[in-house]
């Protein structure tokens, strides 16, 4: 009963963010899965310049991801968010994407490796699309780095295409149930810097 209340509260938070609502989701995920029966909510925000050289068109992208542990090594997640141009302040919908992440290897004192698969609608996939993910974490205390490669497969438009997204950053443990994610993302030549807070319920 306690887990059900936590799941409902996390879903309400995520839906509230969605309803308040050429950009993309930041990844804000590491190779670590949340564990069987656990729920995690990640809230993040990123900034990027969508204009060309010498010009500036800054946007921020508040976004969130809700993850539920199906087992210790498998989690189901959904993410959504908004794009807010600083010039106008008018939010636009980034999309909604579901995904499954599978832990392949996890050694708390060395490294973790995971694969992910997902799909949905997002600006980063130029509409409807599918995605894959490869996650690598360094779990060394003095070097808490993570890297993600995500190929995106748009289903709309003519012909087959792949959009490559790369991300890397630091995963910093704040407490037993909270981590801070500092991240840089590269998608189609666009660089984005963001910060995320992952809370485990």
Verbal overview:
The protein has 201 residues and is mainly beta. It is built from one helix and eleven strands, in the order αβββββββββββ. The chain has one helix spanning 2-19; strands at 39-49, 58-60, 63-69, 74-85, 92-106, 111-122, 127-138, 145-154, 163-175, 178-187, 190-200. The longest helix has 18 residues, at 2-19. Residues 5-22 have low confidence and may be disordered.
Radius of gyration: 16 Å
CATH topology annotation = Lipocalin
Report the sheet-strand fraction.
over 45%
Structural class: mainly beta
What quaternary form is this?
single chain
User: Which second-level CATH architecture applies?
Assistant: Beta Barrel
- Specify the CATH class: Mainly Beta
Poorly predicted regions are: 5-22
How much helicity do the residues have? under 10%
Can you tell me the overall shape? globular
Instruction: Tell me how many strands there are.
Output: 11
Keywords:
201 residues, mainly beta, Lipocalin, eleven-stranded antiparallel sheet, 11 strands, 9% helix
Please write out the topology.
Blueprint lengths: L1 H18 L19 E11 L8 E3 L2 E7 L4 E12 L6 E15 L4 E12 L4 E12 L6 E10 L8 E13 L2 E10 L2 E11 L1
Question: TL;DR of this structure?
Answer:
The protein is mainly beta and 201 residues long. The protein has one helix and eleven strands.
């Amino acid at each position: 009963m306690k887990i059900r209340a936590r799941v409902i509260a996390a879903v309400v938070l995520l839906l509230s963010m969605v309803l308040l609502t050429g950009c993309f989701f930041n990844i804000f995920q590491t190779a670590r899965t949340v564990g069987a029966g656990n729920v995690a909510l990640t809230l993040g925000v990123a900034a990027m310049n969508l204009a060309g050289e010498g010009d500036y068109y800054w946007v921020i992208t508040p976004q969130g991801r809700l993850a539920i542990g199906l087992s210790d090594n498998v989690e189901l997640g959904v993410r959504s968010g908004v794009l807010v141009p600083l010039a106008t302040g008018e939010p636009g919908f980034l999309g909604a994407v579901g995904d499954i992440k599978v832990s392949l290897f996890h050694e708390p004192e060395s490294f973790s490796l995971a694969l992910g698969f997902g799909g949905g609608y997002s600006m980063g996939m130029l509409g409807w699309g599918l995605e894959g993910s490869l996650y690598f974490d360094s779990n060394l205390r003095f070097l808490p780095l993570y890297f993600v490669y995500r190929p995106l497969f748009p289903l709309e438009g003519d012909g087959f295409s792949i959009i490559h997204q790369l991300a890397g950053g630091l995963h910093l443990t704040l407490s037993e149930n909270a981590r801070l994610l500092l991240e840089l993302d590269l998608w189609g030549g666009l660089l984005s810097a963001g910060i995320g807070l992952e809370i485990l319920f």
